[in-house]
Design a protein that fits this description.
Pfam families: AIRS (PF00586). This is PurM-like N-terminal domain-containing protein. InterPro entries: PurM-like_N (IPR016188), PurM-like_N_sf (IPR036921). The chain is an alpha+beta fold. It folds into two domains: 123 residues, PurM-like, N-terminal domain (60s Ribosomal Protein L30, Chain: A), CATH 3.30.1330; 104 residues, no CATH class. Strand 2 and strand 3 form a beta hairpin. The longest helix is centred in the first third of the chain and has 18 residues. The chain is globular. The two termini are 20 Å apart.
Amino acid sequence: MSIKNEALPNRDVVLIKINGGTFLAVACDSAGGVGEKERDVVKVSPYITGRFTCRVALMELLAIGAKPLTLTATISCEPSPTGEGLLKGIKDELSACGLDDIPFAVSTEKNIPTCQTALGVTTIGIASEAELRMGKTKSGDIIYCLGVPKVGNEVFLDDPDIADAMAVKRLLAFSEVHDIIPVGSRGIKGEVEHLAAVSGLSVRWERFLPVNTEKSAGPSTCVVFTAPAGLEIKGLRPVFRLGTLA
């Protein structure tokens, strides 16, 4: 596998070779108009916005096999109360993923009043070339989906039908699992078709699909992954078979 210092195609991740076979990995996510401010479109607490924005950036990093080292939180709102709520969500998401001690930098808007919630989270990690989970998909692999695509007001924190960062970590424990891709706004179909294209393969979709493959998955409420036929994924639900790559 040859990896250049570049952004991965259509992924919010950049890999930078720092020495030998070691790579720095940088991933990011942003949220705007999601909170409790006057002009927010989706009305949820800043805490929820902080958790899900942090979650997406972590999932992107973990999905390629990188170990998170630090993150930044760019808060385009006042430090209190919105900033405090966002930061509490970020800290609790890190804790839920077993990353309580990870250091991070924070910036808030202290000069200009804002009428919408806006947050950007960047995660930085490290991985050896041998640890990277990308470019592993092979002809004959089955395409699976973990979680259900949901967006906007459909999304809530304790929904058992959505994926999270810990689910990605559990998938990484299966050596048979090849590529893992968090699904975002372009939906399952877009992610699978792109994976097939970069792998030089084509998709044979199941005749009856159990989820809407064209729907946005919002804050990565589902992930697609590839593995050989016959793999048993225990302890993770819901998992759906979507098709075959050939």
